[in-house]
Amino acid sequence: MPEGDTVWRATKRLHQALAGKVLVKSDFRVPALATTDLSGETVVEVVPRGKHLLMRISNGVTIHSHLRMEGSWHLYRPGERWKGGPDYQVRAVLGTDAWTAVGYRLPVLELVATDAENTVVGHLGPDILSPTFDRTQAIANLAADPDRTISEALLDQRNLAGIGNFYRVEVCFLLGLHPWKPVSQVDLGAAVDLSRRLMKANLQNAAQVTTGVNRPGQRSWVFERAGKPCRRCRTTILTAHLGQPPQDRVTFWCPHCQPEN
């Protein structure tokens, strides 16, 4: 699932291409929006909210989308071949004179009144990449359930918005936290600060990197490295599922660097 930094980069590209421009094409390919036409309206801005993407339009509506596991937005010049997937996977097409934005495989795509955006993102905790990130509130949210595992707490978007499985796994490794360690035994400020620092460092990267080495196979410490030796101690990286379907996540950890007790 795309995490906050991925959504931040997507919204930045969309904002640069579309903000202040008039839509000359509007094509929504989901039943609930099939008759909606935003042609003639102006894109005011495109902003992220955690893992959510909000495209605000001049008529007072916001196009709300969430990428989840497979969704993506692509930008094309007029006449350029679309390469994001087959046509049947297209969910939205929004065009200006200079750009066409195509949304592929969007599991969440809806229109809401801009002044009612809280109905779709109001449940989220502080956005970890926001310039006005409320660190104190985020820590308080995490601490509210002291018996919960740190992994579950960091992934819960109601506590703080933007962290996904990649950063959760890597932060736990870098802080020496066993994935099932209870919140009450964790320096929550350190976990929040490291998560924010890593994500901000990757805002300009096309890839997510925590090792400082932006090369294939060397970008992560433990994420997706099950069965391989720990980069620090050479102990074999373990893997297991966290939670229950459909919300389960695969976790990775080093049993030596991240002891259970």
Automatic annotation (TrEMBL):
<feature type="domain" description="FPG-type">
    <location>
        <begin position="221"/>
        <end position="259"/>
    </location>
</feature>
<feature type="domain" description="Formamidopyrimidine-DNA glycosylase catalytic">
    <location>
        <begin position="2"/>
        <end position="95"/>
    </location>
</feature>
<keyword id="KW-0227">DNA damage</keyword>
<keyword id="KW-0511">Multifunctional enzyme</keyword>
<dbReference type="GO" id="GO:0000703">
    <property type="term" value="F:oxidized pyrimidine nucleobase lesion DNA N-glycosylase activity"/>
</dbReference>
<dbReference type="GO" id="GO:0008270">
    <property type="term" value="F:zinc ion binding"/>
</dbReference>
<keyword id="KW-0479">Metal-binding</keyword>
<dbReference type="GO" id="GO:0140078">
    <property type="term" value="F:class I DNA-(apurinic or apyrimidinic site) endonuclease activity"/>
</dbReference>
<dbReference type="InterPro" id="IPR012319">
    <property type="entry name" value="FPG_cat"/>
</dbReference>
<keyword id="KW-0862">Zinc</keyword>
<protein>
    <recommendedName>
        <fullName>DNA-(apurinic or apyrimidinic site) lyase</fullName>
        <ecNumber>4.2.99.18</ecNumber>
    </recommendedName>
</protein>
<dbReference type="GO" id="GO:0006284">
    <property type="term" value="P:base-excision repair"/>
</dbReference>
<dbReference type="InterPro" id="IPR000214">
    <property type="entry name" value="Znf_DNA_glyclase/AP_lyase"/>
</dbReference>
<keyword id="KW-0456">Lyase</keyword>
<keyword id="KW-0326">Glycosidase</keyword>
<keyword id="KW-0234">DNA repair</keyword>
<dbReference type="Pfam" id="PF01149">
    <property type="entry name" value="Fapy_DNA_glyco"/>
</dbReference>
<dbReference type="GO" id="GO:0003684">
    <property type="term" value="F:damaged DNA binding"/>
</dbReference>
<dbReference type="InterPro" id="IPR035937">
    <property type="entry name" value="FPG_N"/>
</dbReference>
<comment type="similarity">
    <text>Belongs to the FPG family.</text>
</comment>
<dbReference type="InterPro" id="IPR010979">
    <property type="entry name" value="Ribosomal_uS13-like_H2TH"/>
</dbReference>
<keyword id="KW-0863">Zinc-finger</keyword>
<dbReference type="InterPro" id="IPR015886">
    <property type="entry name" value="H2TH_FPG"/>
</dbReference>
<keyword id="KW-0238">DNA-binding</keyword>
<dbReference type="Pfam" id="PF06831">
    <property type="entry name" value="H2TH"/>
</dbReference>
<dbReference type="InterPro" id="IPR044090">
    <property type="entry name" value="Nei2_N"/>
</dbReference>
<keyword id="KW-0378">Hydrolase</keyword>
